Amino acid sequence: LRNSSMISTILLIFFGSVILTESASFVRPSRNKPLRQQQILQQQLSPKWQPFTQVISDVDDTIKSSGGVKIGDVALGGIDTQYERGEFYPGVFEFMLHLSLHLLDDSRKPAKVAILTARAEELKAALELTPDSKIGTMLRQTGEHHGVVDWGLGPVFYGSVAEWVLQDRKGMRKFSNFELLIEQDPTGTLMQYIYVGDTGEYDQQAGEAMLREYPQVVKAVFLHVVLCSGDNDLISTLPTVPPPKLVNGRPIIFFRTYAGAALKAVQLNLMSYSGLLKVCKAAKESLQSVSRDDSKWIELERDLNAAYAFAGVHSKRL
């Protein structure tokens, strides 16, 4: 067990069994719903019932790169310098789709992606996220490409200018917005959540608060480890990925590529093998115009090899 990769895999498989057991047995009582609604909920909690999984995501440095752009000492959305500003991360939309689809039968549509962003409400006119925005369009088109109609951007919760000035408030603002989001299903019987963020703007603080306060409905937190300095062409300058950690019995997973994140999701039983391979395929295709010597490819190939080895599929088959 000295091999850190082997230890991480064993821990992840264990975490996955914990998630399955707890999500199947947990029922949070509700004092506010009428009796008829409670009866409907109990019917849905049959052995065959599976709650919907709603992916909750940050935007900058999670879905797309901020480019590390600053005004003075204030970052405009994030710190990542490996990808150009506005560039979507390879495989990100497929990753969110296949988290949302996991364990749903064909008769049920997946929940749309909810957004918790530090973008200021006061600047909404310039920064608003809508179903017709680039992110909304990419989510919808990804769903349609895989035969899922009317999937895409769901509710969006913004920050404020105050969090741009006092940066350490960003995490708690996102957590407060998360509490507003879960009011859609206070019993936790219809909807459970996976939070996807990054290590650059207090998303870990928000994710840990979610797991501390709501471990019954938050299944996992995935955090993109971002690059904030160094020569992006040298693999030696890229950040080290921390090992997974537990908060209140739920996992926080750190990753560099969405292929790597998808592998961890499969090990946690949060995504299917088919979903893993589709994320890997999409990530490869998005980097076709990038030199194989670029650090983006070097990191992706490392995670692709691990994913294909785990799934027992050779990359050339894709």
What's the structural blueprint in terms of helices and strands?
Layout: H1 4-25, H2 35-44, E1 52-57, E2 70-71, E3 74-75, H3 92-101, E4 113-120, H4 124-127, H5 134-145, E5 153-159, H6 161-165, H7 170-181, E6 191-198, H8 203-213, E7 218-224, E8 245-247, E9 250-255, H9 258-267, H10 273-286, H11 295-311
Parallel strand pairs: 1-4, 1-6, 4-5, 6-7, 7-9
Antiparallel strand pairs: 2-3, 8-9
Helix pairs in contact: 3-10, 7-8, 9-10, 9-11, 10-11
Describe this entry's structure for a reader.
With 318 residues, this protein is an alpha/beta fold. The strands form two sheets. It has a seven-stranded mixed sheet, sandwiched between helices. A two-stranded antiparallel sheet has the order 2-3. Helices cover 40% and strands 15% of the residues. The longest helix has 22 residues. Strand 6, helix 8 and strand 7 form a beta-alpha-beta unit.
